[in-house]
Amino acid sequence: MASSAMSEPLLSVRGLTKHFPLTRGVVFRRQIGSVQAVDGVSFDLHEGETLGLVGESGCGKSTTARLLMRLIEPTAGEAIYGGEDIFTMSRAQLRRLRRDIQIIFQDPYASLDPRMTVGSIIGEGWEVHPDLVPKGQRRAEVSRLLEQVGLEAGHADRFPHQFSGGQRQRIGIARALAVRPEVLILDEPVSALDVSVQAQVINLIEQLQDEYGFAALFIAHDLSVVRHISDRIAVMYLGKIVESGVADEIYERPAHPYTQALLSAVPSPDPTITRRERIRLEGDVPSPANPPSGCRFRTRCWKADERCAEEEPALVDRFGHGHPSACHYADVSDVIGSSGQE
Amino acid sequence: MNGDYNAATASGRSPLPPGEPVLEVRDLHVEFRTRRGTLRAVNGVSWSLEPGETLAILGESGSGKSVSAQAIMGLIDSPPGFITEGEIRFRGEDLFALSEDRRRRIRGDGVAMVFQDALTALNPVFSVGWQIAETYRVHRGTSKREAYAKAAELLDRVGIPSAHERLNSYPHEFSGGMRQRAMIAMALALDPEVLIADEPTTALDVTVQAQIMDLLTELRSELGMGLVLITHDLAVVAENADRVAVMYAGRIVEEGTVSEVFTEPAHPYTLGLMHSIPPLHRRVAALDPIPGTPPNPARIPPGCPFHPRCAFARQHCREVEPPLERVGEGRASACHYWEEVKGGE
After folding, report:
1. For B183-198, what is each residue's pLDDT tens digit?
2. Residue B281: its chain A contacts at CB < 8 A?
3. Interval A252-261: pLDDT, tens
4. Do A228 and B239 touch (CB under 8 A)?
5. For residue B208, which of A197, A265, B18, B177 is within the disulfide window of CB 3.0 to 4.6 Å?
6. CATH number of the domain at A11-24+33-230, please?
């Protein structure tokens, strides 16, 4: 699953920024500010690996996904895929890109066209890319895909409303796989599902990844799910990555106070685990329209001082673990009690 | 984990005799009669809550976990919903046998409820302060001035900073966590003996979730309230409840103290749920989910409703529905083969 850091990344994102303008007035619209949804995000995605993007609502993780799909245009930054910048691609290149990068959304009720049969939903991509599957074999290919995601071939003639949430998410996965993507972006793919069904879909994603070898950008707020599925993880706060590294590093040796607070806030389903002291964060996430100066986390951070207000901490490897963190006072601490557990 | 039992006397209520539940649901049956057929949402559910205790009702969507609470609060629209059997007793009085006036009093004073989505539960056109003050004024007959003072005190109590200035704010001006706090403040206005919280943290971020659960736990022990926590989240149950009732297809399938149920589940459904969530503190190779999906309440399978998804199922399970039976001190399971389930772990 994991790939060497030496190999050329499949997707390389640098300085990705999206500021949504805030306007006032109807006739004389003028910009009065901007919502800094994503601000200078950089990461690499390697072939076949899963990168988990975690953070709370408003941290910019879903905006990042929409930018990479070019559903919205960035304010600045680049994303190099196959030697080309996604944001300057020609129409023909974009058509190819949208085959190579597929997305699965959170809401399986809103992301499937209710008037199309499941078979035509799955096969829709072949209308744009007819060379993928010859016309005569499409019916068989839909059946094969349906079976592969745990549905039945006969389901091709049904409509989305005849399926449960978990089944719809499987249909979405089959649709994405139909065009053989290199990169699959999964934006909260299991958050809307029941606990027992979540695990089925997670297992399915892992099994398909082994088989098809796509790289995955897994966006979620559930930290247990992210640890389970990701090779590497990037933690976002208010539009910036504050810490990134190999999954076990992030969970067992988090260095950024926000990561530590986030991990320590996750309740444990096992009553026998005695957790360490929970880090209580005060207040709410500040508005991205008016983020704090310097370090964006400083208004909720127990370590913050004047330096944090003045100087923005860089995302750099501070301990030589290959695990960068963006905090002047970064300090490794095991907050979930990983050591000592079996 | 009993709280301050003087709280009941402080609010002018006589203390309950020890061991007496403050709220009790007995053999409740609720169905929804729709054009597509009758949905049996709740099929003979019984539970009781002691003063100062936290009882979790755990279940997935469609399990009926919220319906008994809605029945207590009189929130089931009829039609299509009908309470066909059962009793709900508050301090020993059967709610359904009382006058409408008395029943409404209990729902305001005795039992209060907070919901998942504070944005829809609060009225968008009135200020938060007004909404809390009005509840207090109507039920307690105080002056407006007093009611507003009480509202400020309550907002402060639930941790809203500069509560006095926030009285005139509208719900949309609050963040998700603050709205949830405001709704809790409103629920506390009449010193309820029981607070029912229906997925109180589901819509919130992890760090805010922890704040709200801490607040509820703190209020419970300080005010001596009983807390009914309705949730789908096993971790929230594990960290906050004393006892848990696990629901499936409108029935309680397992019940007991949280520590016992979670360390040694006696029903395959509970066991399956626990295997479905990845642990945070270590990595597992693959998850071991429950196959299939929860049943449609219009088509609940015969016999044990869980049998189509159960690894322990055999012919007997397809034919005979297992009753919820005592399987130990304060524990019950609705599985023919509970000993096997419990022993296998």
Report:
1. 999 999 888 999 999 9
2. 251, 268, 273, 336-338, 341
3. 999 999 999 9
4. no
5. B177
6. 3.40.50.300
